[in-house]
Design a protein that fits this description.
Length: 627
């Protein structure tokens, strides 16, 4: 399976679905729900260092971004792995792009423009995968806070990582790993990065699609995999990107698996300038490519349509298809697009670019925005991703520019690296692309992907866009039980036991798009461990406990026991806090070895002091069996 470093390297295996990976985000989100997306730290440790990231259990960091004024202090980032007291690796912000393995093209620095006094600002970013077997803590020697250039502030940033229920064969990062193959691969943008295979080529030369017409690009029977789609449009004009649509259908499915404007398929809806990413890209000469593998096991059909009223001429179209069953059908998802989100404004709420059901993992997002007129700063909207119905966003961003791993908006298009970037006119309109090669977004029942219009949905913006993913129609998770501590009958039915504590009512809000919707509940705190019975599906392949809690206080941690046996792979850890939007949904995944074949277990949650205090609490638990 694709985990850790392998997820960045084995791109031919992108369609393989994850068994137990979850994506997470930690970053400088405005705790009040506004646009003050700075002040990035969790707590100050006993050494006086500022902790900006903490994770327990096996996992892999895939993306680090930090924004800072050039006049700011140069922070030193320290990485503490697996509970060690000495950092295995240290790097200054100024060393990104220079200190191995944080070098181009997987890591570097972007210096933004002066931009009418808002800049310049240095953005450091990294896509270097950093595996850890037990835990990871990242600190800085400078408190990352503020936004005032005159004071040399700079507190924006984030980390995106995967967690795994149990170690899938990771080896903890130490900075001496051989990344040469990976670095060489990601330098060759424009060239198919997957291993060479014997392919059949379907080519069309010198064709014209009349308005309303269509052209079959490829048809195949049996098993195979599309390895590349390439087009060259004659006399290219940007409006062709929305006029031409590509439709693909695999294995006689009732509906198209892919149906989208070619601007989305090739990573740019505007086409003002060339953009070239590892897996997709285009130039203004009309050359375009997409290298995401697209497997099928019975048949495939790919069609290009002209949905405009003017003819479009092609110099050529080429589809490369590997022969035979290159991947195991039962382990993979089909390459799909979400329903194209047509250009529109959503008043007072996030633009929901994608709502996807079933199971799979997202691998790319293309989002375009138009303000009321060109040149209007329109970058402040946070991307927010909810997975499997969790009310707390699993992925966010401190502005759309940060999602694309840049800073201070979109004033200097085009900007792109091998993973992400943007095109357009200065500030508006813009079209950004974020490929998710390593830090894909696994989901088991649904994925909801939205973006704000402005800092807190207070600006008129028209969005369009799409999410590409590997998916299947069936779900791989089922809710089998739940406990609500405000409901005495629920508490009795689940045999809840523990030393007497308190259960205080709380009416509060979640973070995210619905942060104005009040939710009422009861927050229970026990003087010691709490134990309860839960029902499972006997067919489970692991279990997720989803807790609703009060995150007014941070550094919540607990040990989890199943029928008296401790889950040794990790502790349950929630290091962040929010005293304003206090409700939190977070999850703990129990590996299958503790629960497989059982339809009922007894769970014990044992709070662990952090920083000399116990802050663990619970309002409700929901129990999900993984299938």
């Amino acid at each position: 399976m694709r985990y850790g470093l392998n997820a960045m390297r084995d791109l031919e295996r992108l369609p393989e679905l994850y068994r137990d990976a979850q994506v997470h985000y930690e970053g400088s989100i405005d705790k009040r729900g506004g646009n003050a997306d700075w002040d990035w730290w969790l707590y100050q440790d006993e050494r006086g260092e500022w902790v900006i990231f903490e994770a327990c259990g096996p996992g892999c960091v895939y993306n680090i971004v930090q924004h800072r004024y050039l006049s700011s202090t140069d922070p030193l980032f320290r990485f503490y792995f697996d509970g060690e007291e000495t950092p295995r690796f240290e790097i200054h912000a100024s060393e990104f792009g220079l200190k191995y393995p944080f070098v181009e093209p997987l890591a570097g620095r972007y210096i933004g423009p002066v931009d009418n006094g808002r800049g310049p600002i240095r953005v450091i970013r990294s896509f270097v995968p950093m595996e850890f077997e037990k835990s990871l803590r990242i600190t800085t020697d400078v408190r990352l806070e503020g936004f005032e250039r005159a004071r040399g502030d700079g507190g924006w940033g984030h980390v995106i990582w995967h967690s795994y229920a149990e170690n899938p064969g990771l080896k903890t990062f130490d900075g001496t790993e051989d990344y040469r193959t990976l670095l060489t691969m990601y330098k060759k943008v424009g060239v198919d990065p997957k291993p060479r295979t014997e392919t059949d080529e379907s080519r069309v030369f010198d064709a014209t699609l009349e308005g309303g017409g269509s052209l079959a690009l490829a048809e195949a029977g049996g098993a195979g995999s599309v390895q590349a789609i390439r087009l060259r449009l004659r006399d290219f004009r940007p409006e062709m990107l929305g006029r031409l649509w590509l439709r693909a259908r695999w294995d006689d499915h009732a509906d198209d698996d892919v149906c989208c404007p070619i601007g989305c398929l090739f990573g740019n809806e505007l086409g003002c300038n060339p953009v070239r990413y590892l897996m997709m890209g285009m130039d203004t000469g009309g050359d375009m490519y997409n290298y995401f593998p697209m497997p099928y096991w019975e048949n495939a059909r790919i069609v290009l349509e002209n949905r405009g009223d003017k003819p479009v001429a092609l110099d050529y179209a080429e589809v490369s298809m590997a022969r035979g069953g290159v991947l195991r059908r039962e382990e993979c998802g089909y390459f799909r697009s979400s329903a194209y989100y047509r250009r529109a404004h959503t008043e007072g709420a996030d633009s929901m670019i994608a709502r996807i059901s079933g199971r799979g993992h997202a691998v790319a997002a293309v989002i375009t925005a138009h303000a009321k007129e060109p040149g209007v700063v329109s970058c402040e909207g946070d991307v927010r991703v909810h997975i499997d119905g969790i009310l707390t966003p699993q992925v966010e961003s401190d502005g759309s520019e940060s999602y694309a791993c840049y800073g201070w908006g979109f004033p200097t298009p085009p900007e792109c690296n091998c993973i992400s970037g943007y095109d357009g006119l200065p500030d508006s309109p813009w079209s950004m692309t974020r490929t998710l090669v390593g830090d894909s977004y696994p989901f088991r029942s649904r994925l909801d992907f939205g973006i704000e219009s402005g800092g807190c949905n207070d600006q008129y913006l028209e969005h369009s866009g799409i999410v590409f993913y590997y998916g299947r129609d069936d779900e791989a998770i089922v809710e089998t039980d739940g406990i609500d501590f405000a409901d005495e009958a629920s508490v009795r039915a689940h045999g809840v036991s523990g030393r007497a504590g308190s259960c205080a009512p709380l009416a509060a809000f979640y973070e995210g798009d619905d942060d104005d919707v009040e939710v009422k509940g009861c927050v229970a705190v026990f003087d010691g461990p709490v134990t309860f019975d839960v029902r499972l599906s006997a067919a489970n392949r692991g279990v997720r406990l989803r807790r609703r809690s009060d995150q007014r206080e941070g550094r919540q941690a607990a040990r989890v026991y199943v029928d008296g046996k401790p889950v040794s792979e990790r502790i349950w850890c929630a290091p962040d806090h929010n005293p304003f939007k206090r409700w939190l949904d977070d999850e703990f995944q129990i590996p299958a070895g503790y629960t497989a074949g059982r339809d009922r277990v007894r769970i014990q949650i044992e709070p662990i002091p952090q920083g000399g205090a116990i802050t663990w609490n619970q309002s409700a638990y929901r129990v999900f069996s993984l299938l």
